[in-house]
Amino acid sequence: MAIPCGPVTVNYRVTNTGGVELEDIWVTDDNGTPDDPADDFVAGVIPGPVAPGAEFNLQTLRSEGAHLYNTAWATSTGAGQPVSAVAAAESFTWLVTGDSDYNGDGRSDLSVWRCASSSWHVSFCSGSPPRVIYFGERGDIMAPGDYDGDGTAEVAVYRPYNGLWAIRNVTRFYFGVYGDLPVPADYDGDRATDAAIFRRSSGLWVIRALSRLYFGDGRDLPIPGDYDGSGTAGAAVYRTGLGLWAVRGVTRSYFGVAGDYPVPADYDGDGSLDIGIFREGSSLWAIRGVTRSYFGRRRDWPQPSDYSGEGTASIAVFRPETGLWSIRGVTRRYWGGPDFIPLTR
Questions:
Q1: What 3-state DSSP class applies to 110?
Q2: What is the mean pLDDT of residues 218-246?
Q3: DSSP tag of 256
Q4: How far apart (Å, rounded) are the C-alpha atoms in residues 2 and 269?
Q5: Backbone torsion region of residue 44, taken as left when φ is above 0, otherwise alpha when ψ lies between -120 and 50, otherwise beta
Q6: By the 8 A CB rule, do 152 and 165 touch?
Q7: Residue 12's closest CA among 68, 77, 91?
């Protein structure tokens, strides 16, 4: 997992699954685009001989993290015959945000973080003049949310190397250790965002001043939210390689395939999050029990949210090379660019 705007170390797990000794194993990465072989690259070579059942870890450094899943494969030959060697890899930036309504009008606003200047840029859907706020530093993980319950999102960051939470004009405190991922949400139903962390190494969730529990593991992405309409967010994970959705105390189901990007949101306005995926290679949006449609294009970043204030999330994408926000049925606007991370959920 990558820190936004920073370089990312991609870890490959390589196993000789065949019954014969291998020569050199070549590991190839799809660069997050399984449908486009043009940008595949060789991640590295494991020198032979490689015994049956042998496992290896291979690392490579990419210059910039992205909201993409990387898949990889390994090839080799033994005694001149094709044999089985497999690899798996992950490289992505994953953010969990608590709220995106920065002026309290009931609509999510277009918000981005600029890597070079550590600045927040907010374009209001109401048409009010945009704002630029300097808060945080390079290496911080953005964690905006309505932490004081006043109906307006606050700019906030989590500093992963020391566990600092800094919430602008509200509070600062230390909570978490290196490697934890911030997962802010309203876990107690009081309409205020709670600070929380997910520790992928052990599956530990800690909600500040509320609870501790274990749910998920290092293969999972945290996707907390209100999936049952109770008004309270719960722990939930998406297992990227299997398409598994596990929502604690609510459901466990399969929806999606390897490489899909989870996009849970309330697409039908019933007050609960719907399970959904975005397939970057084909721009497919599949929302379970609601709709299937194609919107966006390759390398777009999905940003579903309630941009109209009607209580229903809209399908939306951010196009980093141009800064285009395309919100289906609502608007098209340019805000941001290649050096920006979109923050609207």
A1: strand
A2: 94
A3: -
A4: 33
A5: left
A6: no
A7: 91
